[in-house]
Write a sequence for this structure.
């Protein structure tokens, strides 16, 4: 079973709940996601949160982010596109676990849950294009 | 997120309910921090918290640290399965006070 679902969201913290609802609906499509749904929803929501928090510094904007969830040949990919501040991948660092502070936890969670986290710059009309993948 | 606070002697129990994400962290801090600043022992009852992300975990970390600085403590009570999973993913089960 392959699928592709897309939805746009406002760039604001209130959208994060909608992102989770969208993802949960998509993951109902197959029982193979059942055990992983909470983790996958968390990873996607953390990535969306990073856009709101870091891409736009939580400032109001008319921009939207686009989320695409695809499943092809046993690989799940969750793509997030936005027009916020350009991400410099080398600047993204997960939290050092010995350093007990809040920052970087979301990125750490994404890395723990997903197999691969890649920023691409090839998408026309968008500034940032993050692709999270996991094989099943 | 909704909440209820009960107080008995020097212990304040905050019953949190719903989903704790970036959208509600300020509200959560506004409830918890004054209790810590009043040097109460704060019990956070998390049995009805269905979802917590890194922002929610940040509230737990900041509350724990603030309490330590002020000579009191925050204890997490009846932690829901989904919240416990995130706490463990963050490897904070040995740092935060879990009951």
């Amino acid at each position: 079973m392959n699928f592709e679902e897309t939805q746009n969201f406002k760039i604001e913290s209130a959208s994060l709940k909608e992102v989770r609802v969208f993802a949960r609906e998509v993951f109902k499509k197959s029982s193979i996601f059942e055990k992983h749904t909470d983790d996958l929803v968390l990873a996607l929501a953390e990535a969306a949160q990073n856009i709101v928090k870091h891409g736009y510094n939580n400032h109001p904007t008319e921009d939207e982010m686009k989320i695409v969830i695809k499943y092809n040949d046993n690989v799940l990919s969750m793509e997030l596109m936005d027009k916020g501040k350009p991400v410099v991948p080398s600047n993204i660092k997960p939290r050092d676990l010995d350093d007990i502070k809040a920052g970087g936890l979301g990125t750490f969670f994404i890395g723990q849950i997903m197999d691969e986290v890649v920023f691409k710059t090839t998408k026309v009309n968008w500034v940032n294009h993050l692709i999270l993948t996991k094989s099943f | 997120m909704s909440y209820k606070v009960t107080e008995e002697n020097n212990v304040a129990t905050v019953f949190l309910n719903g989903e704790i994400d970036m959208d509600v962290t300020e509200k959560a801090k506004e409830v918890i921090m004054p209790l810590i600043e009043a040097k109460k022992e704060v019990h956070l009852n998390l049995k009805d918290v269905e979802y917590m992300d890194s922002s929610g975990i940040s509230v737990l970390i900041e509350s724990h640290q603030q309490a330590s600085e002020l000579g009191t403590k925050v204890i997490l009570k009846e932690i829901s399965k989904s919240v416990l999973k995130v706490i463990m993913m963050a490897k904070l089960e040995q740092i935060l006070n879990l009951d």
Observations:
- The mean pLDDT of chain B is 96.
- Chain B has one domain: 2-98.
